[in-house]
Amino acid sequence: MLKSLREKNLGILALIIAVFFVGWLEQVEPGGVGITELTFGIFTFNTVVRIGILTIVVVGLNILVGYAGQVSLGQAAFYGIGAYVSAVFTVQAKALGIPEAIASAWIWPWFLMLLGVLITGGFTWLIGRPILRLKGHYLGMATLGLGIMIFILFRENFAIKPSTVIITGGLDGLPDVPRLSIGSYELWPLHRYFYLVWFFAVSAIIIGRNVVNSRVGRAMRAIHGSEIAAEVMGVDTAKFKLQALVMSTMMASLAGSLYAHFQAAVSPTPFDFVASLELVVMSATGGVGTIWGAPLGVTIILGLGEFLRANLHFLGAGSEVEPIVFGLILILIMIFMPEGIAKQITKLFNRRKSNQQTPEVSA
Amino acid sequence: MSPPLLELNNIGITFGGLTALEGVNTQVSAGQIKAIIGPNGAGKTTLFNIISGIYTPTVGEVTLNGEIINGQEVSGLSPHHISEKGITRTFQTIRLFEGMTVLENVMVGQHQKTNAGFFAAAFRLPSALQEEQRIEEKAMALLEQFDLADRAQEVATDLPFGLQRRVEITRALATEPKIILLDEPAAGLNNTEGHELMTFIRKIRDSGVTVLLVEHDMEVVMGLVDEVLVLEYGRPIADDVPTAVQSNPEVIRAYLGDE
Amino acid sequence: MKVNTFFKQTLAIVILIAVVSGALYLGNQKNFGWPQYTQLALEGLRGGAIYALIALGIVTIYNVTGIINFAQGGFAMLGAMLAVSVNNAQQLSEMGVGLRLVLAFFVAVSLTTLVGLLIERLAIYPARNAEPLTQIIITVGVFIVMQGVAFLIWGSDQYTLPAFTTLEVRDMPIRFSGILIKAQSFWIWGTVAIVMVLLYYFFEKTMWGKALRACAINRQAARLMGISPNRMSALSFALAAALGAIGGFVLGPATRPSYDMGLTLGLKGFVAAIMGGLVNAPAAVLGGILLGMIENLGAGITKAGIKDIFAFIILIFVLLFRPDGILSKRETVEKV
After folding, report:
1. Tens digit of pLDDT for each residue in C85-115?
2. How many domains, chain A?
3. Is A360 a domain residue?
4. A359 part of a folded domain
5. C138 CB near a chain A CB, below 8 Å?
6. Which of B227, C18, C283, C306 sees the fewest Cβ atoms within 10 Å?
């Protein structure tokens, strides 16, 4: 057990080194080689930041789906709540009557980030218990419906009475979300923001890993295995399912806030139903039930998208082929690697290991 | 005789108008091994589901040490509450936690004996780490006691069937129950495994845990148990020591008539 | 548990009363009277009939294979778009509009059925033993591909289909004392009614229909009786695709078909199916009809933009209070 933990710490260490390497590469560009050149044009620095943001969401989703076994097809909406809390209360501060002194303080957006996390967590904590009583398909449909409802609230033109300011900006969204800063040190340009995002992403991975390797994580995995058996072992299944949901939505909200300040704008589309499904796909591609599957899945799916967008033109077709190829690859992955790529890699690795050991093992 | 540890008072349950159990009264004393037997469909597993809190009976109640733990009057008691009060069980179709090692399965059994929460787990607080170590040792000790220690790191669902059953029982024992309910523990086992199981069950009883088991084959349990409750079509037809039950004409009719 | 059920029922009734009185209050503010409500309900009934058809497809597939088919709305889209293509085909411009529509109907339904069969063979069948989540994602993938291909063929334009009565894009309105109904609505209701009668006949009287039903009740037993569950799985997809295509075809003139019309239709179809308890075909039809009317009334008294929200409010309400569907009488006993 201790040994395996040390192995996992090595993984974290490797990830941190990789983050600093990519940051260094981007700033120095030794010999003109940046991250884009190194990955044959697939990953721009911008994409690496997006991977970090989505990793936070998918780590949470992985805990919920992969460990606790509870499907959420509406996760993008919680991601959106974070983004919209951060955007609305900064961009619309004046219309909402927030004093200028508060709204322009550097700490205000950080407070909003926390507020978003608390609102999302509180909301899912309130509605989670009845919804999590549902199982399988039904839970999927309920979370999907919830996600679409929240999305419609983002999209619609709700004005703040008595003024006519549209609070969420409707379909157009809100522009000019301020950058984050600490004191007078602005976390921008991108390479500064990159470190912030990956600080949160690595923290999410570490926390996620700690949780799944604990009493709490064991209880969640037990629920996934058999809810009834977990109950008779004394596990309060309702409580742990709820904890998994609340944790995952809080992570999504945090990532949403990071996204809003990264894009410096929000609009409804990235939080729609398709986005929710894409998150599930990322989680499933990386591997449900492994924390490392999260960054892996996000990287693969985003990379695939970027690759298709960049390269399909050379095949003589426009970007309209992209969703088709994306869908096909998705189907293929699900048919041939339903447990995800991370599990597949572990399996191959284990098989090789056990093959080497076979002579000594007596069946 | 010692006072009853577990008592069923006039238990009855209906599903959508169909009566699955009716008028079941019985007692289990501390330190006993008691069997519930009866032909398939007699309602044995349903009775287990009621005792372990998975179903609420339509009428009657279950008491543990005189305290009502299940019945129409007590609402909100889930199986995990009942597990906490000292009743745990195994399942007819083995329900080990998939993808978890034998050790981890047994450690889940210690869930109620620990209290590290989300925060302590996320930040690996010393209290949580100590607790982990404590229950890991505890689980290993249990595995050793039941000759499973060398399998601790294997994925539980990959083990041979007979061992899986033992892991499931060990996991249940890790909750430190007063009573353990074993649902057809001998099902699917060969003769040798069956005999091993009987020794195993005696070992459990000798460690101070009361055993209540379901079996449909009468012969298997006769040499093992102190008392037998016989169910037929959801009603009790005999509740006595094995020898008396064996010569009970009702029971003979039920079993012979069934063939 | 008794206390809980009582609490839940009371809560459900309180919420229902609050919603209905809130709706009446909002309607009052807009000076709505019976004609307006009836008008809204009838317009909703048009959409509801289509949701019912889509829900029927979902229920059929779910019953036979245990898979929730996310691509069901895609079949409706395909039906409508194929009909548009036949109708607009240069080669057929000599043909009368009526005849062309008949041809469009057969082309749309048969091609979509074929697509349904292909999807089942290529994407669903290989993953027949996978986990439900995996299967859901596969059908999502199928939907993405369908929509992508549709975009490639038809672009993002909104098309038109001639109305069946006038054989022009402009439909004939029918008036009853202040209420106005488009003639196409009657075509839609008529089609849905005929389809339901045919389906009933198919499931009750034909060999294949009976085999499908047997498969839905118990796959193992059906296999023992010589029914191949694999073949039934393919048949259920073909049937569902045909149902979807018919829905898309009759809806075509009442809407503006485009490559992305499938998503909303599919989702509403689900909500209808869940309202019916996911396994009960007649209840799913009722669910679709109710859904169409409620969402249109809701949108009418509030604002059009939030029309879609009502479906999901209903969905969550049904899942929480009547998880086995609005018509179910069964009480759930299990606590975990």
Report:
1. 999 998 888 888 899 999 999 999 999 999 9
2. 1
3. no
4. no
5. yes
6. C18
> Does C320 sit within 8 Å of A327, measured CB to CB?
no
Where exactly are the structural domains of chain C?
32-321
Chain B hits for C328, CB-CB cut-off 8 Å, are none
Query: Nearest C-alpha of chain B: how many angstroms from A142?
Result: 24
The CATH code of the domain at C32-321 is 1.10.3470
Which residues 6+ apart lie within 8 Å of C253 measured at CB? C160, C161, C162, C163, C164, C169, C171, C184, C187
Burial of B222 (0-12, 13-18, 19+ CB in 10 A): middle
In terms of residue numbers, what domain contains A42? 2-351
The Cα B250–Cα B237 span in angstroms is 7
User: Is the pLDDT confidence value at A174 over 80?
Assistant: yes
Distance from CA of C153 to the nearest CA of A (A): 10
Give residue for tokens 């990830």: A15
CATH number for the domain that contains residue A122? 1.10.3470
Buried residues in A274-313 as b, exposed as e (16+ CB within 10 A): bbbbbbbbbbbbbbbbbbbbbbbbbbbbbebbbbbeeebe
Helix (H) or strand (E) holding B250, with range, is: helix B249-258
Residue A356: inside a domain, yes or no?
no
Predicted local confidence at residue A363, as pLDDT: 33
pTM for the whole structure: 0.87
Q: Which of A210, A229, A231 sits opposite B78 (nearest CB)?
A: A231
pLDDT tens, residue by residue, C111-148: 999 999 999 999 999 988 888 778 888 998 899 899 99
Which is more confidently placed, B89 or B257? B89
Name all domains of chain B by residue range, CATH numbers in brackets: 1-86+178-259 (3.40.50.300), 97-176 (no CATH)
The mean pLDDT value for C242-251 works out to: 96
Distance from CA of C172 to the nearest CA of A (A): 33
Residue A65 has a CB neighbour count (10 Å cut-off) of 25
